[in-house]
Every structure is written in C-alpha cells, then in structure tokens.
Amino acid sequence: MLLVIRGNSASGKTAAAREARRRAGRGTALIEQDHWRRVVLREHGGLGDDAVAPGFIDVSVRHLLRAGYHVIVEGILHTGGYGPMLRQLITDHPGPSHVFYLDVSFEETVRRHHGRAEPIPVTADDMAGWYKALDVLGVDGEMVLDEDSTLEQTVAAILDVSGLAIAASLTPCPARCPRCAAKQAAGGGVLAVLGVERSGELGGAGGPVC
Q1: Using one digit for the tens of pLDDT, what is the confidence trace for 110-155?
Q2: How many folded domains does the chain comprise?
Q3: Pfam families, alphabetically (predicted)?
Q4: What is the CATH classification number for the domain harbouring 13?
Q5: Which one-letter DSSP state was computed for residue 20?
C-alpha cells in the first residue's frame, strides 16, 4: 500500500504521517521528504532537473514496496519538482494508492509554526516563499483535508480511507522475525509484536518492543 501525504510547511502533514505510521505499527515505512533531502543528502531545494532528492525518494519507495512494506511518503513535495515522480509511482504501483492533501491557509500555517513544540529556524518570509495554495496532484481519489480537521480527525481519515489500520504486515519483521515471534510466544500478543502500544487503544503512546 502506498500513501502520499502532502501540504505546505506547518500544515500538520508530518505530525499526521508520523502518528499514522505509529498506529499502523511494524511493516509500515515512513519517508519524510525533509529528512531525505536535508539530512541524508544535504541538498538545497530549487535545483530543478539537477535535484537528486526526487529520484532518491522514488527508488527508495519502490524498493520498500517490493520488500512488502506499506509506505507513507510525506512532505511539501511541490508538484513542480515532485509531481511527475509521484504520479508515476502511483501509476506503476500494482497495489492500492491513497493521496491526501492538507489544505491550510498561509495565515494558519504561520500560527501553527509559531506554536511548534520543537521550533525550527524558519521565518514567515521563508514560509511565504514556499507556500503554494492547493497544490494538489490531481490524481483520482485524492482527498483534500481542510484546516478545520484536527490532528486526530486527519489521522483517522488517513487510516480509515486507506485501510492502513487493518492492513496485514507483510515484511520480514514482524512476519518472519524471531524476536517478534518470541515476544508473541511469551504473551506479548499481536499488537506488541507490531510495535503498537496496548494500553486500551492503538493511539496510546509507546514504541517498538522488539
């Protein structure tokens, strides 16, 4: 399963993608555009055809999908630089694909930016330069979520529409992982094996246990 979650800076896409992946548990990979481009590659934006990040993300997603992962791709992912790659990924993927766009006004993104729990060195002027209104991919089934959607509502929509919350994990870990098998045999149960908190609901805080 392939999920693409896009939106402007401070639209809430990263928080939603991380929470969706956490609730899904093991067998779901998260590719964050900012980490791939800024941390792994240390590449500036705006390089046009010289940019390495789109192709790097493309081959990474394809490898993970072939390995059996459900993959969430998250980022601003402007259509100008990433649209052709993403549309081709969706076309080529034989399994289900789901695209979500978080449509948040510029003023609201600035307000959210200033309220970040972990501030980042970005100014409102920087954000204005990146902002593109309703920069949707234009693919069939693309779901647009407006700024009135809370984080919980956004995550719930992503999980419910895609079916990720109930999708089977097909990757070696946990499907064929000795440590996961030992945890399950010891009474940890399926949720513990998947790396999901078992304190009442899938949304509880917690991390991987094997």
Answers
A1: 999 998 888 888 899 999 999 999 999 999 999 999 999 999 999 9
A2: 2
A3: AAA_33
A4: 3.40.50.300
A5: H
Where in the sequence is the domain holding 196, given as residue range(s)? 171-210
pLDDT tens digits for range 171-189:
999 888 999 889 888 875 6
Q: Are residues 103 and 197 in the same domain?
A: no
Tell me phi and psi for residue 70, to 5 degrees: -80, 135
Closest CA to 208 of 24, 34, 65: 24
> Do 148 and 175 fall into the same domain?
no
Looking at residue 171, its pLDDT comes to 93
- Which residues does 14 contact at the CB level (< 8 Å), separation at least 6? 32, 34, 74
Three-state DSSP state, 73:
strand
First to last CA, the chain: 23
Question: What is the b/e burial string over 139-160, where b = at least 16 CB atoms within 10 angstroms of the residue's CB?
Answer: eeeeeebebebeeeebbbbbbe
Residue bearing tokens 């809370």: 150
Measured distance CA(119)–CA(97) in Å, rounded: 32
Spatial separation of the C-alpha atoms in residues 47 and 186, rounded to whole Å? 52
